[in-house]
Hints:
CATH class of chain A: Mainly Alpha
Mean pLDDT of chain B: 89
Largest sheet of chain B: 10 strands, mixed
Largest interface: A-B, 34 and 36 residues
Number of domains of chain B: 2
Radius of gyration of chain B: 21 Å
Largest sheet of chain A: none
Low-confidence stretches of chain B: none
CATH topology of the largest domain in chain B: D-Maltodextrin-Binding Protein, domain 2
Order of helices and strands of chain A: HHHHHHHHHHH
Radius of gyration of chain A: 20 Å
Oligomer: heterodimer
Order of helices and strands of chain B: HEHHEHEHEHEHEHEHEEHHEEE
Number of helices of chain A: 11
Structural class of chain A: mainly alpha
Number of strands of chain A: 0
Strand content of chain A: under 5%
CATH architecture of chain A: Orthogonal Bundle
Helix content of chain A: over 70%
Shape of chain A: globular
CATH superfamily of the largest domain in chain B: Periplasmic binding protein-like II
Low-confidence stretches of chain A: none
CATH topology of chain A: MetI-like fold
CATH superfamily of chain A: MetI-like
Distance between the termini of chain A: 43 Å
Helix content of chain B: 40-55%
Structural class of chain B: alpha/beta
CATH architecture of the largest domain in chain B: 3-Layer(aba) Sandwich
Strand content of chain B: 15-25%
Number of helices of chain B: 11
Amino acid sequence: MSFLFxxxxxxxxxxxxFDPEVYYVVWTSLKVSAASxxxxxxxxxxxxxxxxxxxxRGKSAVQLTLNTLMALPTVVVGLFFxxxxxxxxxxxxxxxxxxxxxxxxGLFVLGLPTIVNLTISAVHALDKRLLLTCKLLGATPVxxxxxxxxxxxxxxxxxxxxxxxxxxxxxxxxxxxxGNIRGFTRTMTTAIALETSKGEFELGLALxxxxxxxxxxxxxxxxxxQRSKG
Amino acid sequence: xxxxxxxGLVFVSVMAMICSAHGQARLRMSTTTSTESxxxxxxxxxxxxxxxxxxxxxxxxxxxxxxxxxxxGDVDVVFVHARPLEDKFVADGYGVDRKDVMYNDxxxxxxxxxxxGVKGAKTAAEAFTRISSGKADFISRGDESGTHQMxxxxxxxxxxxxxxxxxxxxxxxxxxxxxxxxxxKGYALADRGTFIAHENKIGVVILFDGDKAMFNPYGIIAVNxxxxxxxxxxxxxxxxxxxxxPEGQKVIADFKLNGKQLFFPDAK
Lengths: 230, 268
């Protein structure tokens, strides 16, 4: 019990001591998670709309694949991109391995299936007559998509929130593609893994609390956006 | 509002990435966990970084993986401790300019009550034979690190193939293995540096040390630019000269934890 209490104390101390290293770690985590979520949304939401609104051969297979990809282990994504981005790999000349950009690439792939899938669900949950009405009123496909997007915004924003939660909490990709480099690619999760391996459990737990606080802050902002448009 | 927010977020994150990726020269070094988790690199790197206006990116993994990263050309310099593997790395043409940096030694740690009676052993091989009685667990790194290499060599010397319920392959770093030994009241082979760094947080104690077979030398090697044209050989060379030169050697000698010296410089 005192262990947990010490951790809480340490967490508050960490936050208010304004240690630049801690803030850099928090900043790195938020930066790579936000960037990858934004990229995944920009690609994933239109893709989800397209899959949900059009019928094509093999649609079930695509959806099944997407569902499976939601269970993608983070270390597999890490390993795959390690092989791609290593100097020996096909994209090695870009020199991306062990940079924040490499983490963003990995997290993007991790978050994408979540966003596409939940966007499809959000669209399916809408009243079927909405699309018909749009079509009857002579809306262009882009206008139709825009209307659907607007009507389904709660579900779609939820997909973004879930994806953000998945990417900010993972450790495998950040460790393998970032390398846990101090002051460069160390994220909150890799820092926690490191502190735990060093036996600094209080510091590890404290960072965990800071991670939660940061996630709370981002989600609160998304919540406000959701409400302001409601 | 929504649009503006997202556009802003994209802009900020992209800018931040560009800034952080191309700010200044970066030297990539893969190294064993003991150099970082003991805290040595925190004092060894800054003088070099300041003098040369570079940032040294440290990727701290087991020696086996550290050398693999060098083999793949994903780092510019490796700083490890497993002499046979280091020599192979150089012989295979992946590394050049190998130099001795420092040494310390490996120790056998375990629970204070020492159920397998390691304390009275005369040699490391004998100590390992006693551990194989299986009265308590032995926690192995199991990760091809330098410590794991040393452990395998010592098992070989004792003529025992470690198997059974008592032989736990953790697959984790030195600190984690010490924690595990502490929790399971088992034995473990550790480098003295990491042990001293953890000493006040765990209950296991040193039960055997001093055998010459447990000598633990650290070496530094530049990645061969002929094999990997991307490797920053000049900068790596500069770093090697610093670490093995009088300035770096003094930092290593002066580095103490809990009043104890962790590494002994021995560059020639």
